[in-house]
């Protein structure tokens, strides 16, 4: 069994590797985690993700800019790719699936990819439609995969209006699905106006909100089924 | 700091190392990184230049980070892993712009960086940083002069003959679609897209040519002489 000290050291190594955008060290530490027999789940959340949370803070404080943020995300994935196959059951309380994409006319997908990364980390099944996605595609994909959540991203005010159409369509086809929107021009006001369930300021918030939304959705489903049985 | 970095890279196998001051030339996402360390490696046949360049880049990044600076490595054009987050930003940046700003050469008529000693035979990689390294003097003008060897030898007539300068960096030097279609044809007939005549023919840095550059000798060139005599 791995000692507390060694565990702490490796978690710190993973965390620093992400903050210092050092892919090599992230890989090295991830392999050490496996060879030491440490819990990969612990390594992901208290190592890699904890580093990414700090990176988010530094980005907000303008200590880090876009290139550093992206390199940190790459370092996180370098570690995650090694650890993930060894994770048996992610212990987040909820598991869900999500359809995600940048809406038609918009090719900016950096933000979308970072949000996707957080879902990946959390063990969600992610159906990534990519960028410049035709509006109908979101609805089709949601119906095909029966996902709990649809995430829409837009970088420009001109393409943002497409999200309203997707939301309306989704609501008529499947009233239970939860919808979350994000991107530079999006705000809580826009989310309310468009009828989205959530608005994500950044990737960390997106994940938190998503988990809350899915758990409330699961609860609704369970209650509905419980009622059926009671009858 | 600049000299120790340069020495470390040259010792590790770099052919040329220059520092460019790029403040004001970079797009918004990367504009906080005002200096570029431009690394050139002479492509010798059968040597893995790309592996060497990426090794040199890692060293540079380690060197700069150890001293508390930011570093963003832009890999060689031929070694761009797709699918990573950072790869989205690579297209914002041009190695030749950094190399010419670092005084390592000019952009020749063949659209390649020409170094006075190594000609168009350098493979380039760049590391952007916010470390205030002392910058080298940029090269402003092309030194191709009236030489038209690459234009005459281009099998697809893709080279326009326009001259590059730092004042007009966006002139069309090579009709890329024409050059590319030639390579596609080559792939069909020979299985490989290799062309590179405009590299081989350039008198700068060519090993088998006399100092004044007038005598075109060597077995390769004799075979091609009918074209030059046109």
Instruction: Determine the CATH topology of the largest domain in chain A.
Output: Rossmann fold
Q: Order of helices and strands of chain A, N to C?
A: HHHHEHEHEHEHEH
Structural class of chain B: alpha+beta
Helix content of chain B: 25-40%
Per CATH, the architecture of the largest domain in chain A is: 3-Layer(aba) Sandwich
Strand order of the largest sheet of chain A: 2-1-3-4-5
In DSSP terms (H or I, runs of 4 or more residues), the helix count of chain B works out at 7
* Distance linking N and C termini of chain A: 51 Å
Compute the gyration radius of chain A: what is it? 19 Å
N-to-C SSE string of chain B, H for helix and E for strand: HEEHEHEEEHHHH
**Could you say which structural class the secondary elements and strand pairing of chain A correspond to?**
alpha/beta
Query: Beta-sheet strand percentage of chain A?
Result: 5-15%
Largest interface in this structure = A-B, 15 and 14 residues
Poorly predicted sequence stretches spanning 5 or more consecutive residues of chain A:
none
Number of domains of chain B: 2
Instruction: Describe the sheet with the most strands of chain B.
Output: 4 strands, antiparallel
Q: How many DSSP helices of chain A? A: 9
Shape of chain A: globular
In round numbers, the mean pLDDT of chain A is: 84
The biggest beta sheet of chain A reads:
5 strands, parallel
Name the assembly state: heterodimer
Notes on the structure:
The complex is a heterodimer of chains A (231) and B (230). Chain A has 231 residues and is an alpha/beta fold. Chain A folds into 2 domains: 4-86, Methionine synthase domain (Methyltransferase, Methionine Synthase (B12-binding Domains), Chain A, domain 1); 97-230, Cobalamin-binding domain (Rossmann fold). Chain A has helices at 4-19, 23-35, 40-60, 66-83, 110-121, 135-145, 157-173, 188-194, 203-230, and strands at residues 97-102, 125-128, 149-153, 178-182, 198-200. A 5-stranded parallel sheet of chain A has the order 2-1-3-4-5, sandwiched between helices. In chain A, strand 3 (149-153), helix 7 (157-173) and strand 4 form a beta-alpha-beta unit. In chain A, helix 2 packs parallel to helix 4 (66-83) and helix 3 (40-60) packs antiparallel against helix 4 (66-83). In chain B, strand 4 and strand 5 form a beta hairpin. The radius of gyration of chain B is 18 Å and the shape is globular. The interface between A and B is medium-sized, with 15 and 14 residues.
């Amino acid at each position: 069994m791995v000692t507390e000290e060694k565990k702490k050291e490796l978690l710190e190594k993973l965390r620093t590797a992400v903050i210092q955008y050092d892919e090599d060290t992230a890989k090295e530490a991830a392999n050490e985690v496996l060879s030491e027999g440490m819990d990969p789940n612990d390594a992901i959340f208290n190592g890699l993700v904890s580093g990414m949370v700090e990176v988010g803070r530094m980005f907000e404080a303008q200590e880090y800019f876009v290139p550093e943020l992206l390199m940190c995300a790459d370092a996180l994935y370098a570690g995650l790719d090694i650890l993930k196959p060894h994770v048996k059951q992610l212990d987040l309380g909820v598991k869900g699936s999500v359809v995600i994409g940048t809406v038609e006319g918009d090719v900016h997908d950096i933000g979308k990819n970072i949000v996707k990364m957080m879902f990946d980390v959390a063990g969600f099944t992610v159906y990534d439609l990519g960028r410049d996605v035709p509006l109908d595609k979101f609805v089709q994909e949601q119906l095909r995969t029966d996902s709990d959540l649809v995430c829409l991203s837009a970088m420009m005010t001109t393409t943002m209006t497409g999200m309203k159409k997707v939301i309306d369509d989704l609501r008529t086809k499947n009233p239970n699905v939860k919808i979350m929107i994000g991107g530079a021009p999006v705000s809580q006001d826009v989310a309310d106006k468009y009828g989205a369930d959530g608005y994500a300021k950044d990737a960390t918030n997106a994940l938190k909100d998503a988990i809350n939304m899915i758990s409330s959705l699961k609860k609704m489903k369970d209650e509905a089924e419980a009622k059926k049985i009671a009858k | 700091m600049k000299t120790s970095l340069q020495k470390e890279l040259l010792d590790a196998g770099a052919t040329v190392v220059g520092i460019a001051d790029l403040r004001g030339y970079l797009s918004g996402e990367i504009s906080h990184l005002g200096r570029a360390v431009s690394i050139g490696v002479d492509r010798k046949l059968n040597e893995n230049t790309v592996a060497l360049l990426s090794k040199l880049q890692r060293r540079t990044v380690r060197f700069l980070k150890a001293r508390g600076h930011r570093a963003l490595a832009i890999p060689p054009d031929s070694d761009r892993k797709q699918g990573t987050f950072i790869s989205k930003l690579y297209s914002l940046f041009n190695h030749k712009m950094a190399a010419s700003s670092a005084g390592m050469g000019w952009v020749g008529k063949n659209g390649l960086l020409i170094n006075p000693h190594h000609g168009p035979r350098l493979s380039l990689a760049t590391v952007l940083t916010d470390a205030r390294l002392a910058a080298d003097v940029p090269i402003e003008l092309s030194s191709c002069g009236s030489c038209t060897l690459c234009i005459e030898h281009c099998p697809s007539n893709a080279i326009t003959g326009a001259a590059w300068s730092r004042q007009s960096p966006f002139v069309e030097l090579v009709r890329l679609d024409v050059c590319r279609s030639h390579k596609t044809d080559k792939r069909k007939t020979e299985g490989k897209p290799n062309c590179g005549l405009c590299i081989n023919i350039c008198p700068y840095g060519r090993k088998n040519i006399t100092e004044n550059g007038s005598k075109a000798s060597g077995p390769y060139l004799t075979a091609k002489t009918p074209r030059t005599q046109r």
